[in-house]
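Predict the 3D structure for this chain.
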Amino acid sequence: MKVTRRSSSFGSSSIGRRSSVNARDIERIQQLLNNQIKLAPSVAYGIIIASPIFAFFLASIQRLHSGLISKFIETKFLLEIPNLASAASFNIFTVIFSIQLIFLWILPSDDYKVTTSAGDKQIVNANSFISSLLIALLYVFGATLGFYNGAVVYDHFIAVCILFSGYCIGVILYLHYFYNPNESTSEPFILEFFFGKELQPKILDIDIKNFVTNRIAFTLWALYAVSCIYHSKQLFLKTPHSQYDKAGFYRLWGVGVFLLIVHTGPLSILANSKSGVSLIVCGLIGILNIIFQLLNSACDLQKYNFRAAHGKIKINDKDPYFLAAKYKNESGETAVNLLLGSGYFRSARHLNYTTEFLTFLTWSFLQKNLNFFTYFSPALLLIILYARMSRDELRCYAKYNQHWIQYCHKVPYLFIPGVI
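Done. Predicted structure below.
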């Protein structure tokens, strides 16, 4: 009879093993912690002021000039001035907001428990994808029946983003002044505004962070992709970190509005230029994009199922390798997290970031016009993912200490297996 067992060098029995960490490893952890750079208030002011201006210029160059700076200069810096007095933009945002509220409450959902840094369990409603998909289908249905112009979201996109910006800022200010108003911190107001005060704030039992970034932003993204097709009058294939990010300007406006404008940029350029790759190449790129998206989802799902089963699960019909890492939660109690070293996470510690980047990169391949803004979206995403990985690594060093170093010895690559 064949007997299988977990590896004694990297499994649950590793809790009681003597650490192989030396003094140099501990010194490295201390240096990483001491070298943390806190954002200066003046820098936060600058980002808050400059990023909306940059997003507006970026959207104008992509939508009016096919992403070409030379055309932008030739037209004497012509910008797209949105009509804020139009009722269309207000109606678009209001309808999306209202339908998402209704879907939040009436659609069935597989709720997930997410563990925060304090060790608390948060329930996350997970029907945002099907909600956004249903709204997109309703949009196509209405446009097909002639209730409205199918390009209406494209035509009023910047005005809708401005309304969305006002909503995000209003929510952030409400959370700062009225949500747990008696709590005081030593942080300057601008830093609390930028990063947020609450990790998972709820208003009328609605998870604000999830509602803004996973419902409204995702829906706008999907509708914009569909609306670009109506605008260009031709069919082309399209596809349009929250556990530690608090509900502030960085998370709500940055993810909800700024990244919405940036990552829909390839669609803007494609819809405006009305020229792209051939249908065959477009189909191949679409298949490749779907593969990367499936891999990205499979990576996240594998880690979630592993954690949910407390390591008692088969991966590729084998017992998984993992490290049981002890840490102190915010209440000072000892807790244990299981660090997976099998399956997708045997080759790299952040392989899900790799597949996410490749997904965005394929969207830029749909265009014939090669310029700076064609690949601005994946380039920016690469910078964001690298910064996020660096922050994750630092946080894990501080949280797990020698256990994380042991894990890094077992899974040495960060982003690309065999390279880095």
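The beta strands are 112-115, 121-124, 202-203, 206-207, 322-328, 334-340.
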